[in-house]
Every structure is written in structure tokens, then in C-alpha cells.
Design brief:
- By secondary structure, this protein is mostly helical.
- It has helices at residues 9-18, 22-31, 53-70, 84-96, 112-121, 128-137, and strands at 33-34, 41-42, 45-46, 76-77.
- Helices cover 50% and strands 6% of the residues.
- The strands form two sheets. The chain has a two-stranded parallel sheet.
- Helix 3 runs parallel beside helix 4 (84-96) and helix 5 packs across helix 6.
- It is globular.
């Protein structure tokens, strides 16, 4: 998954998982769905700590690769993945382990109106100025 905060990545994933047969949906939800954001949830509350971001991205990647190596039927990474280098390790690992890779971009990251919508609805209170910077840097290639 790729997209700005508030672009609908998690919603897209939820809809996709719900569209799967029940056994696959349950398996994917429990063992195949990875997001660095989930590592910032402590006792049900999102507590972002910039000092842990790099570490948590590494942990998320490791968990993702473990799921691939177990042969989970569907494995999803739900991060912003603004630049190619942010998701290449996920893609490379999946291809190396025989998975078909689908990159999904939610919304139009370069669009000013989309950026404003994302600023209003993102659940982590990322301010518009930061979302605009992310949109400007977003690698569509």
C-alpha cells in the first residue's frame, strides 16, 4: 500500500480483506497484515514517537518477511511508502519468495484537494503542511 496519511490505505485493506473467503480473510488479518503504525499502539492508544520510527520500520519489515517465509497466502504492507526506496525491500523480498506483487496507491498524492482531504481525515493528526511536503516528494514511478 502507498498513499498519504488519511488517503484511505487502511480502509482499502479492510475492504480487500473482507472481500476474501472467510478463512483467507481471518488468516490475512491475523498473520499477513503489517503496518508500522500498529507498532505505535500501546494499550489501544496510538502513541507516535519519532525516535522509534526507524526501529519500528525495521521490525515491520522483518515481520513482513517472516510472513512471506511462512507462505502466508496474502501479505500486505500498509505504510505511506512515499518514495520507492521505502518499499523496495518489501517488494524484493516478496518477489524473491515467489509472490506476485501488487502496488496500490490510494488517492492522488500530488493533488492539492486530495492533500487537504487527507489532512482533515488522517487519524494521526498529521498537519496539512507535512502532508503537502509528502505529496510533493511522492514518487509515482
Amino acid at each position: 500500500m502507498r498513499g498519504l496519511p488519511g488517503s484511505g490505505k487502511s480502509h482499502w485493506v479492510e475492504q480487500f480483506i473482507q472481500s476474501q473467503p472467510l478463512s483467507v480473510a481471518l488468516q490475512t488479518k491475523q498473520y499477513g497484515y503489517f503496518s508500522t503504525d500498529s507498532l505505535f499502539v500501546v494499550e489501544g492508544l496510538y502513541q507516535f514517537d519519532i525516535s522509534k520510527l526507524s526501529e519500528y520500520h525495521q521490525i515491520n519489515l522483518s515481520l513482513f518477511i517472516e510472513a512471506l517465509s511462512r507462505g502466508e497466502p496474502i501479505v500486505i504492507c500498509d505504510n505511506t511508502n512515499v518514495c520507492h526506496w521505502e518499499y523496495i525491500a518489501y517488494k524484493t523480498a516478496a518477489v524473491a519468495l515467489g509472490y506476485k506483487v501488487k502496488i496500490v496507491i490510494t488517492g492522488e498524492p500530488k493533488s492539492a484537494s486530495h492533500q487537504q482531504l487527507c489532512a482533515k481525515r488522517n487519524k494521526h493528526n498529521v498537519p496539512l503542511k507535512h502532508i503537502q511536503r509528502m505529496g510533493k516528494a511522492f514518487d509515482l514511478g
